[in-house]
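Model it.
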Amino acid sequence: MAFKTARSVRFGAFELDSARGDLHKHGVKVKLQEQPLRVLAMLLEHPGETVTREELRERIWPAVSNTFVDFENGLNTAVGKLRQALGDSAHGSRYIETVPRRGYRFIADIEAAGSLTEISPRNFIIHQDALTCDTGVAETAAATQIQPVATEGTDRKSTVFSRLALLAGALVLLGILFGLNADLLRDRVFGRFHQTGIRSIAVLPLQNLSGLPDQEFLADGITDELTTDLARIASLKVISRTSAMHYKGTTKPLRQIARELGVDAVVEGSVARSEGTIRVRTQLIDAVTDRHVWAQAYERNMQDVVALQSEVAQAIADQIRVKVTPSEQRLLAGSGRPVDPDTYELYLRGRNHLNLRNLPRSIEFFQQAARRDPNCDLAYAGLADAYSLLGNYNMLRPVEAYPVAKAAARRALQINENLAEAHASLAFIGTSYDWDWSNAEANYKRAIQLNPNYATAHHWYARHLTAMGRHQEAIREIQRARELDPLSPNINAGPGEALYFARQFEPAIKAEQTALEFDPSLGRAHFVMGQICLETKAFDQAIAELRVADAYYGHQSISLAELGYAYGISGRKSESGKVLQELAKRSKESYVPSGLVAAVYMGLGDTDRALTWLEKGYAERDLWLVSLKVDPRFDALRSNPRFQDLLYRMKFPVH
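Modeled.
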């Protein structure tokens, strides 16, 4: 389906005049450069179809087809400006959808200007088999019609043959339909007799039917908690809430969502709150057959909301006949205790702000929940997560963040030893701050045992294994995290990062290219790509990648320091010196990890100053020293006694 012959194409409030190269919104011209307009025109030529990055390169950027960074930057910039002009985004797209590892697809309904017939690319793709079969039905019916014969003596025979012919035609048609599985007819007819093969599932964001936007946190919170309950079942693959939340408010067909997430089934439903009661409706849909496996509505007092979540999870497990071990059954049952509604609401509001990375606000709600109920284990687990992230993002000094996080995690585990999130937080602190490698590993394993589908635990454990030089184990863990959270930006960049530290640079480049095809705006992937290019001596490409990363990071100290290192080893020492001056200026206003400054001095070849700053990092328990044992940037120091002593004091295991 193409619009090459149409002068103008309309979609939503927009109209593109392909002849003049103008884009209008409600009749007002939208300012847009040539390349974004050409990308839009090419996507509109193939509505609902994937236009690959290679096709865009050949058509729009032929002159830079041999320069990866120039093309990638050009395309990413063009798509970004196009989305900005359309009021669109990479996640929850209305017009332009990123097709991971391939290209882009225009997904909105469009029409040729002056035409009354709209074309929905989604519907066309989904139902094209059915449309073909509909045509077949008409043709078969016409072919099997028996023309009447004028002679009276042959009427009875004519009728018999007509009926036989019609029956034969119907049987042939039915065979064709079943063979093609048109519109899933075969699955719908025989689905009830087929034992479910559901082994993977995603809980899509539950709809807020309370009528109040302020209650959105409740629907999202119950979605999260239901996901967590199901994730405890080891024999069931459960997609992380991070990936599932990409589909909040989407109009994509369930089968397409399931395909993108790699699951057999999805759970969807709604939440409505009225005074002291909560009504939850959920349904389980087999994504392969598009069949409703189970649906149930619940109404409970708010104090029984946790028990309700556990009940729904158990019902889903029963319906798909997945194996639930006795210990998992106890965990599900144990999570169903009564709660104080006001305390639980404070916790859910805190978790909502944590997910949005509004960390100070999340801490306020978690603290209020803990004050209201000193035995609210979830509130302390939330505090541990929030303070760990404050340390991880360098928003607080390590000594200000991690001890508070550790105390909160320990308090949560005193109340409930079976909280996977608290074990994972304690493990992260053990790696990042205490350098207690064995205890950290024990907590990671316990977290994963309690929640085998906890993608964050697998991700953090992968980094822990990388720091200790156990690269193959680390690569397996980050791949598992990616299976569970396929749309997470940071996890998508993780495989390339693990391969970089393992010195497997060619596979690392391919991994980061894959991550950037998934999301070209992924700053972490550009950052790691820059690091890899530095190790392969592709300095110009490395600096270009790191500049892109710096822009996406919002010019944070981590990206600035890496640019300083890159300038130094590529011979641009004056620019590296300017980076050192900027970091010194920033350190007077906010925390700048000393390990970042040490890396810049390594780029300049000043190993004495680099070691001095590493010692400062040791004193402040700098998070960036965790990778010291495997970081290629410090290879020149490996034989230095001061460096060896530093590794010894950090208690790295010797293999």
